[in-house]
Amino acid sequence: MSIISARMRGPWTLFKKELLRFWRVSFQTVAAPVMTALLYLLVFSHVLEGRVQVHGLNYTSFLIPGLIMMSVLQNAFANSSSSLIQSKVMGNLVFVLLTPLSYLEFFLAFLLASVVRGVAVGLGIYLVAIVFIDLPMAHPLLVLMFAVAGSAFLGAFGIIAGIWADKFDQMAAFQNFIIMPLSFLSGVFYSIHSLPPFWQTVSHLNPFFYMIDGFRYGFFGVSDISPLISLSIVLGSFFAISWLALTMLKSGYKLRG
């Protein structure tokens, strides 16, 4: 037992450091995303409530799970990517690389911290939303599985982005030209069945769509596609992106001079 705890001390310390990094500025990393999601909810529900129904749901109910999951994904990505790019730019990443941590332990510490931040933001939005609207949860286990799998996928993607980027503007380009478009075009604000056939096909190429759709199914038991298919695609995407991240970490790509 002492051998196991001694071996885990390194990755546990790095994980705890990553948790403290975002929690010490929780007003920015947790409270601000919750407020942003609530502003989206306020604006869209005010304009479209009573005019639009999706899957037999009123628009506000339909919208909330999508906003929760979108915030989970964006914040999971932001956690790992911002940590790595800040460490690279400030020059203190070398102190982590000098430790006897393996590349797998390094990956897991950053990944788990991203999952914690993503889920914390999602939980914050959910707790505030249920004060104003009844939000049933038909399949709580599926809600948790999609939240964890989705945030893990974006946490691993954030590690890749953080390794690749050398400057803050490169990271901003990642966020603005990849993460944001994929988030907004994933069915957060609409059902893809309302789109023309061509755009429905394009939506099926977006992994964010399966995360949003499966997460919404966990609340209402309705979705645009089978939740088992969605979960399979999300997990498959996570393993593929994790393999790429681990390969980059193992080779020391852009991490070692």
Describe the structure.
The protein is mostly helical. The chain has one domain. The chain contains 10 helices and 2 strands, in the order H-H-E-E-H-H-H-H-H-H-H-H. It has helices spanning 2-23, 26-48, 59-90, 93-97, 103-132, 140-164, 168-184, 197-203, 207-220, 227-251, and strands at residues 53-54, 57-58. It has a two-stranded antiparallel ribbon. Strand 1 and strand 2 form a beta hairpin. The longest helix has 32 residues, at 59-90. It is globular and about 60 Å long. The model has no long low-confidence stretch (mean pLDDT 90).
Strand-residue proportion: under 5%
Mean pLDDT: 90
N-to-C series of helices and strands: HHEEHHHHHHHH
Spatial separation of the terminal alpha carbons: 37 Å
List the total number of helices: 10
Low-pLDDT sequence parts: none
Write down the domain tally. 1
Number of distinct beta strands: 2
Anisotropy-based shape: globular
Rounded radius of gyration (Å): 19 Å
Roughly how much helix do the residues carry, as a percent range? over 70%
Coarse structural class: mainly alpha
Query: How is the main sheet built?
Result: 2 strands, antiparallel
Widest β-sheet, arrangement of strands: 1-2
